[in-house]
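Same chain as my last thread, 266 residues:
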Amino acid sequence: MLENPRSPRVRAVAKLTKRSARQETGLFLLEGPQAAREAVAFRPDTVVELFATPTAMERHPDLRDAARDAGIEVVFTTEAVLDAMADTVTPQGIVAVARQALTSLREVFAAAPKLIAICEEVRDPGNLGTIIRAADAAGADAVVLTGRTVDPYNPKVVRATTGSLFHVPVAMSADLAETIARARASGLQVIAADVGGDDFLARRDVLREPTAWLFGNEARGLEDEALALVDVSLRLPIYGRAESLNLATAASVCLYESAFAQRSEG
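reply #2:
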């Protein structure tokens, strides 16, 4: 059992809360039973280490059994060690280390996607994680991160995905124009979610087609250069007194509207 919160092994795990350590090692941190469960179930090949308190393993026998079946050893620790490793105040007794496994742009578009989300300059970890989760729930084929979008392996992003990071392919691209060009070449129309766009309800007919939704920065939205690249821009109506919709909420609506439209044909 690991008992020393200051041991080199514990410190190495704790460092993964920092982007520099994640970039250097190619690893990232998972916290809590849900994230660990999804990793073991869907991407066991990426799980490097699984740490847990004895009490936590007793509470989650399904995770214990799944880890055993996947050949993943559970390393038992004290509560103090788990607290030292984790980014959260309450990691629920379980922490794992996994290998980063981004999908390439080539793989995303070679799979003939019908619905993807492109996130341009999305900076809030909670928003990005929620968008990945919504894309997964709506049956999207991939999420592509462009520009200076937050690191998808930031612990707050990982927590906000609630395991969807292991279900839906996530790719990174430095260049938005290249991503949009590849999307069009694979048969996708590109729709921007923008407050200056056409009324959503008046243009819902376009949602039946294979679509790449483009979502911009929380504060600034999409730059004019980005909007010039898309096929159409749409805005969600505000019926109440809210000043605006949170980015992740708006993205969820857009992705689900496309999913409904695409599935209602025939």
